[in-house]
Amino acid sequence: MISFSVRPLRSGSSGNLTLVECAGTMLLVDAGLSSQRGLALALAEAGATWDDIDAVLVSHLHGDHIHPSAVVCCARHEVPILLHEKNVRAFSRRILSRSPVSGPIRCFGGDRFSVGSIEVLPFPVPHDAEGVTSGFLLLARAGDREARVSIATDLGTGGNGLYERFVDSDLILIESNYDPVMITKSRRNHVDRARVDSDTGHLSNEQAGKFLVRVMQESRKLPRAVVLCHLSADHNTPALATGTVRAILARYGFADVPVHAARRDGPSPRFFAMEAGKR
What we know:
The protein is α/β, with parallel strands linked by helices. The protein has helices at 36-45, 68-77, 88-94, 180-184, 190-196, 205-218, 238-251; strands at residues 4-10, 17-22, 25-31, 55-57, 81-84, 105-108, 113-115, 118-124, 134-142, 145-152, 171-175, 225-229, 259-261, 271-274. The protein is built from seven helices and 14 strands.
């Protein structure tokens, strides 16, 4: 049995970086830190370097998910950047134009593809970034065993057609951005608050909890863990996010599912979808 793990190294509006490892393959989902030094430090905290990374998979073009600093690192170490085909033009205008160098760029559409031992199935999610915002179903196989990791860290709503992408996952990484009471008391301007609370903004704690209930009700197995991502520094806390989601899950009989909050400014624990030596 191989190991298949996910470790958020940073998660929030100041930068997102998630390390996925499986059978010698290391994949980064997003690389939105604003300095090359910060990126190298985040990798070092996980015992990795840019030379270990096989590709950077970009969910969307907001600067906290892909930054020119990452483009420079990828170019220097010949790490391919994987983009949705409809984001290439905007990526060139918004990101490449601010980088002194460019490395390999590869495109994906809606079909499944592989990065080493990891299979990737992208799917669109509602968010107000230019172009297409993607969530990802990541899969790995060992014999007759298939492990599934579902990731969507920016989405405005979990409407019909989306929850099916998370069914039967071994790990779920899902946005839980804000608390509705905290956002109503926010000092941010009303336009920004309305954007966050819109169907193309971000997912609240309550919305994340209800989305997860529907996923679990439709699943034949429960996830080994749920990781709440992209918590707002102004409108949320880890205790509030995990407490709200756990209470909603418990109300529907899913109290045994572990719920964690990804750290904003440091590495989170390593979460296993499949672990060597364990069935």
